[in-house]
Design goal:
single chain; 387 residues; alpha/beta; globular
């Protein structure tokens, strides 16, 4: 298999940028990635552009990548628009890597960009709802909040009953990720919080409080992948992807994640015990705890133990979400998968500063998107290795 390396990364901070367009954010991230790679647009053979909700939030459909990249120097290259709910960024990366592995192209740019903030918040919530099967909805939603938090809450109640996980466990995950985000200059929320503050924040859908839920935000991220040799490159060692199976996955939490993880581990030639850090999809904080199990970091039902042992914080044996995760770094949905991969890349380069994981050489990234019949619609697991 052709080795594929990540040789350049760049991203904007995450925030609510009323005066910035999707194009503006995209151009900043792309410039930074090219500067980091010491390459130019002329060196790129193709572009995979990830975006999920621009069609509803901004009205731009169909050619989102071409409009965002119009003045970037990349027009004339093949540009592919990728939309796969919150897993859009990981989908774009998956396709770009495989295009290089196949020998089709040598160097490919991956971009994830999203403008979610809108003066009318119901527009954003309506856009997010389309990542579920609308035939499962009764049409009664007033779009005053995200339907996904209600979906997460129902799953989390079952998990609590099965494992003994508590709201205090979930609150600690938020505290940990805010502590990590405080060290990340690109994070949306860099303030530290206490367990009491998390539990006392407004209830969204029991057991979830507001601070347990990822925020609305804008941002862009870009990375350069290549088959060329590079001293600073990080190896794209394994990629797994799966969709949820309604008939088989009910009652089996994270089943699509487990399938994707098996593929990624096998491609990379490693197992869960070889992972030094992970970025996982904590759109709601309890999802991180559940992913510990789905990814094989502990036995089924043992996620709460890792929380109570504080195993997944910086300085622990398996730091998770050193970026701050979705609840603190932010979750502009089309950007998220790429931003997760960038955090892993920076860690494996040993360039993460105060949030650096000592001696990190293997990282895992898990990204999920959408809901189909109460199972995950798209699940990605990627393994990166330090060269």
């Amino acid at each position: 298999m052709t080795p594929v390396s990540i040789v350049g990364v760049g991203m904007t901070p995450v925030g609510k940028f009323v005066d910035r367009s999707l194009r503006d954010l995209t151009e900043e991230a792309v410039r930074a990635a090219f500067l980091d790679a010491q390459l130019t647009p002329d060196d790129v053979d193709a572009v995979f552009f990830s975006n999920s909700v621009a069609g509803i939030v901004t009205g731009q459909e169909s050619i989102r990548g071409q409009t965002a990249l119009r003045y970037s120097g990349l027009m004339g290259k093949p540009i592919f628009n990728v939309e796969n709910a919150c897993a859009s960024g990981s989908s774009a990366y998956f396709l770009a890597r495989n295009a290089i592995v196949s020998g089709m192209w040598e160097t490919v740019l991956v971009v994830g960009a999203e403008k979610m903030a809108h003066v009318d918040r119901t527009v954003t919530y309506r856009a997010l709802e389309t990542a579920s099967d609308l035939s499962d909805r009764d049409g009664s939603s007033d779009h005053s909040s995200s339907v996904f938090m209600t979906i997460y809450a129902e799953k989390i109640k079952k998990y609590m009953k099965a494992t003994g996980a508590t709201r205090e466990d979930f609150a600690w995950i938020v505290v940990k990720n805010h502590d990590h985000a405080a060290l990340n200059p690109f994070a949306q929320y860099r303030n530290r919080v206490s367990i009491d503050e998390v539990l006392e924040s407004p209830e969204i859908a029991w057991p979830l409080t507001r601070l347990m839920c990822s925020p609305i935000g804008d941002g862009a991220a870009a990375m350069v992948l290549t088959a060329r040799s590079s001293d600073r490159g990080v190896l794209a060692a394994g990629c797994g992807f799966s969709s949820g199976n309604i008939e088989k996955d009910q009652g089996e939490h994270g089943h699509a994640v487990r399938r994707a993880a098996v593929i990624a581990y096998e491609q990379a030639g490693i197992g869960p015990d070889d992972v030094h850090l992970a970025e996982v999809h904590d759109a709601a904080a309890p999802a991180e705890l559940e992913m510990y199990e789905a990814l094989g970091f502990c036995a089924d039902g043992d996620g709460p133990r890792l929380v109570r042992e504080r195993a997944t914080t910086l300085g622990g044996p398996l730091p998770v979400n050193t970026s701050g995760g979705l609840v603190s770094r932010g979750h502009p949905v089309g950007m998220t998968g790429v931003a997760q991969l960038i955090e892993a890349t920076i860690q494996l380069r040993h360039e993460a500063g105060d949030r650096q994981v000592d001696g990190a050489s293997v990282a895992l990234v898990q990204n999920a998107g959408g809901d189909i019949g109460s199972v995950g619609a798209a699940s990605a697991v990627h393994v990166l290795r330090r060269q």
